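Duplicate of earlier report; superoxide dismutase input re-posted below.
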Amino acid sequence: MISSNADHKASSSLALAQHRFSGGEQRFSLRRGKTGNRIFKKDTEKMERMPGEGELDHLERPSPLTEKERMMIQDSWSKVYENCDDVGVAILVRLFVNFPSSKQFFSQFKHIEEPEELARSTQLRKHAHRVMNALNTLVESLDNAEKVASVLQMVGKAHALRHKVEPVYFKILSGVILEVLGEEFPQVVTPEVAAAWTKVLATVCCGINAVYEEVGWSKLSTSTG
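Output:
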């Protein structure tokens, strides 16, 4: 959970989520082979672990980003976004392999188990592109609170009302994003930069969770459960 201790910076909160939800599980990375092609490498296998019920109930919004943090995020993202499609696919494959229950919301590829086959899925690649574009819009708009709120409203409502996605998956996805960026861009996503990313992803999770509450998610999930 994101810490409620006022003396703790929220910049470490999703790193904790990353450690708890992603660390030590099945890890699929993009590695360059001798031919220069990117391949998926499987390191370990463990069972999926899901956060306990109610872990999103008391999220606290982190303090606003500083100008330095905003610039670090935007500068690092410009380098990540050069590999938009590859990074997006790596993130989603890591998510679906480590947390197979997250595939239940995707009828086109929810029965695919092998990571290499997932990576080749046209529908997965399309969704990865949408995820990366949404992240790009958020990063480009970090100095525009209204734009950020508008994007979170759109994403939150669509996933709550149309796709019926449990909000906990946004927290899990944030941990996966941090993990993949740290692995694939270690010289760019330094510990200081990762702390800034953690802070902004915590803000995104809080914002989306607020949208879920606004649309009455608890009542919706109860009525459709």
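The radius of gyration is 17 Å.

Merging into the original ticket.
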